[in-house]
């Protein structure tokens, strides 16, 4: 009898934590996408439009969000991020746009999750 009540309470806590996690991931991934778009190279303006985010599930069924470059420019985004050799033998320096977004998301995720969880409890 007591064990079923404890089980029920823990189940409710897990459900609340999962909901808070889902909301936090959604909000932080939107911010990360915006930061990546703001920092993306704007020489022609088309690359910025290819930046997207998608929701996937990991092996445990937990939600994950991925910020990525779609389209034809997506396969070359690492060259823009890190730099590359040019045709004439020089080097084109990188223009980091994913790294600042990832750093922001990593720093913001834990504090936002704690806030959401405290609101729900």
Descriptive terms for the model:
121 residues; alpha+beta; two-stranded antiparallel sheet; two-stranded antiparallel ribbon; 4 strands; elongated; HK97-gp10_tail; HK97 gp10 family phage protein
Task: Describe the secondary-structure layout.
Blueprint: H1 2-39, H2 46-50, E1 51-57, E2 63-69, H3 77-82, E3 83-85, E4 91-93, H4 98-120
Antiparallel strand pairs: 1-2, 3-4
Helix pairs in contact: 1-4
Question: Topology as H/E string?
Answer: HHEEHEEH
- Count structural domains: 1
Total helix count? 4
User: Which percent range describes the beta-strand content?
Assistant: 15-25%
Measured as a percent range, the helix fraction is 55-70%
Q: Largest sheet at a glance?
A: 2 strands, antiparallel
Mean pLDDT rating = 91
Rounded Rg: 20 Å
Spatial arrangement of strands, main beta sheet: 1-2
Based on helices, strands and strand pairing, what is the structural class?
Answer: alpha+beta
């Amino acid at each position: 009898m007591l064990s079923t009540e404890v089980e029920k309470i823990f189940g409710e806590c897990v459900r609340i934590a999962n909901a808070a996690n889902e909301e936090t991931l959604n909000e932080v991934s939107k911010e990360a996408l915006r930061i990546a778009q703001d920092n993306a190279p704007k020489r022609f303006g088309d690359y910025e439009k290819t930046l997207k985010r998608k929701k996937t599930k990991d092996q445990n069924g937990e939600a994950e969000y991925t910020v990525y470059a779609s389209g034809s420019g997506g396969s070359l985004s690492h060259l823009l991020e890190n730099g590359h050799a040019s045709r004439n033998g020089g080097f084109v320096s990188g223009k980091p746009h994913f790294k600042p977004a990832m750093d922001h998301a990593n720093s913001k995720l834990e504090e936002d999750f704690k806030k959401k969880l405290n609101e729900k409890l």
